[in-house]
């Protein structure tokens, strides 16, 4: 251990002649610890919310989704898609068509998103776990059925009896719009309901109508091998990057291959923005807490003037003496940061296992604040505290010794 660090440690833990310096040093450590604790808990809470909401979307989202970079639909009866279907890590290859439609039930009507899928869709996703009434079966006894979101069911007033069909209207792909009779520009088909689903997300529950791909091709006038996307489930999710790269190489630049995060890019982008804006606000709180370190360090420098003279007479340079007090300040910041991180980890573990902080009364998805600890966030908090403490500690040392030199 270099002797400036040794002396700085002695100054930090030894009793000072003025009790106020001991008190201010303790307050400095506690202030940094409180800010670090807040950072750890806040970042972990955002991670928890992201995981909870992300898992909801992944109930109906595939591991990989292939769409065209130009145009909306494309044909899959090609050699390239045959290669993709036969890749080792591809477990389920599902055809899909998504189009905006008008849904009507008796006297109620609203816009909806028709999602038509292959019959292996239940093997691709966890749709069966999302069913709230009935059972998921796009085709049963050669009859086509639809599964709609709970929110859309409430808007249309279909109930859960599933007796009367709904009518879906879609714009014709060919021909011109008739200004005399605009209704002729739309094609409609009726379909019976057999289930409702919910993932507790309004943008899905209030819009989606899931049907068989044959029904959509007839309604939308699509060819037998025409789709708007291909959805894939992988055998080994750990190899998703390699598989995504292979698929992109096979299909070329005309297609876009998206993983689960890219499919819900807006959601994850907003979550990250909220997370780091909150982090910046906590950085300001940390900066205020470090003002205590400035006060503590300034008083310590004034108290140890005689010690500084003795060290100078023993051959210590002014740079060595500066180093002592710089190490003192950094130790205060480091101890506070470590104490805050350890307390933050303990609190997060308690929240994970016992749900100490509840969300309150209401129909929430989870009852307690979700928490997910990430090792990277802990190192980032420590790095942030030390980065902000460097100029905070350097300023009083430079100011006091600069004034003495003049």
Compose a concise summary of this entry:
The protein is of the alpha+beta class. It is built from 14 helices and 13 strands.
Task: Walk me through this protein's architecture.
The chain is an alpha+beta fold and 406 residues long. It has two domains: 194 residues, no CATH class; 200 residues, no CATH class. The protein has 14 helices and 13 strands. It has a six-stranded mixed beta barrel. It has a two-stranded antiparallel sheet with strand order 2-11. A hairpin with a 2-residue loop joins β3 and β4. It is elongated, with a radius of gyration of 32 Å. The two termini are 32 Å apart. The mean pLDDT is 84.
Topology:
Elements: H1 3-13, H2 19-58, E1 64-68, E2 74-75, H3 79-85, E3 90-105, E4 108-117, H4 121-124, H5 127-130, E5 131-134, E6 139-140, E7 143-149, H6 150-156, E8 166-171, E9 186-197, H7 202-205, E10 208-212, H8 213-220, E11 226-227, E12 229-234, H9 240-251, E13 255-259, H10 260-263, H11 265-303, H12 305-313, H13 318-354, H14 375-405
Parallel strand pairs: 4-10, 7-9
Antiparallel strand pairs: 1-12, 1-13, 2-11, 3-4, 3-8, 3-12, 5-9, 6-7, 7-10, 8-9
Helix pairs in contact: 1-13, 2-11, 2-13, 2-14, 3-9, 11-13, 11-14, 13-14
- Kindly give the count of domains: 2
Distinct helical segment count = 14
Q: Report the principal-axis shape.
A: elongated
Q: What kind of assembly state do the chains in view correspond to?
A: single chain
- Unreliable spans are none
Percent in strands: 15-25%
Quickly give the structural class: alpha+beta
Distance between the termini: 32 Å
Neighbour order of strands in the largest sheet: 3-4-10-7-9-8
Number of strands: 13
- Using only C-alpha atoms, the radius of gyration works out to 32 Å
């Amino acid at each position: 251990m270099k002797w400036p660090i040794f002396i700085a440690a002695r100054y930090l833990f030894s009793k000072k002649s003025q009790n106020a310096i001991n008190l201010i040093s303790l307050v400095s450590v506690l202030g940094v610890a409180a800010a670090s604790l807040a950072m750890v808990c806040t970042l972990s809470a955002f991670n928890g919310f992201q995981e909870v909401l992300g898992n909801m979307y992944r109930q109906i989202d595939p591991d990989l989704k292939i769409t065209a970079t130009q145009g909306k639909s494309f044909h899959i009866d090609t050699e390239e898609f045959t290669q993709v279907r036969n890749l080792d890590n591809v477990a389920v290859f599902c055809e899909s068509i998504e189009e905006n439609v008008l849904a009507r039930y008796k006297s109620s009507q609203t816009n909806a998103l028709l999602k038509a899928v292959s019959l292996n869709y239940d093997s691709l996703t966890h749709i069966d776990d999302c069913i709230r009434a009935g059972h998921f079966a796009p085709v049963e006894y050669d009859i086509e059925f639809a599964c709609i979101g709970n929110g859309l069911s409430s808007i249309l007033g279909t109930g859960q009896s599933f007796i009367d069909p709904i009518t879906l209207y879609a714009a014709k792909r060919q021909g011109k719009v008739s200004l005399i009779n605009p209704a002729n520009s739309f094609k409609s088909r009726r379909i019976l309901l057999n289930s409702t689903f919910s993932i507790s997300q309004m943008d899905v529950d209030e819009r989606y109508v899931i049907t068989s791909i044959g029904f959509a091709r007839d309604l939308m006038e699509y060819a037998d091998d025409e789709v708007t996307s291909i959805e894939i489930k992988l055998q080994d999710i750990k190899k998703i990057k390699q598989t995504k790269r292979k698929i992109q190489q096979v299909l070329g630049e005309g297609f876009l291959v998206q993983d689960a995060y890219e499919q819900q890019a807006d959601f994850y982008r907003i979550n990250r923005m909220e997370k780091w804006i909150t982090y910046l606000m906590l950085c300001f709180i940390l900066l205020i807490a470090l003002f205590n370190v400035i006060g503590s360090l300034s008083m310590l420098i004034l108290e140890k003037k005689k010690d500084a003279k003795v060290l100078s007479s023993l051959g210590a340079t002014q740079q060595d003496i500066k180093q002592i007090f710089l190490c003192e300040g950094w130790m205060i910041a480091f101890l506070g940061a470590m104490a805050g991180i350890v307390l933050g980890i303990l609190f997060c573990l308690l929240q994970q296992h016992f749900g100490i902080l509840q969300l309150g009364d209401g129909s929430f998805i989870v009852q307690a604040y979700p928490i997910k600890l990430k090792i990277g966030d802990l190192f980032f908090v420590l790095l942030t505290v030390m980065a902000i403490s460097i100029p905070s500690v350097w300023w009083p040392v430079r100011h006091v010794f600069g004034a003495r030199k003049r």
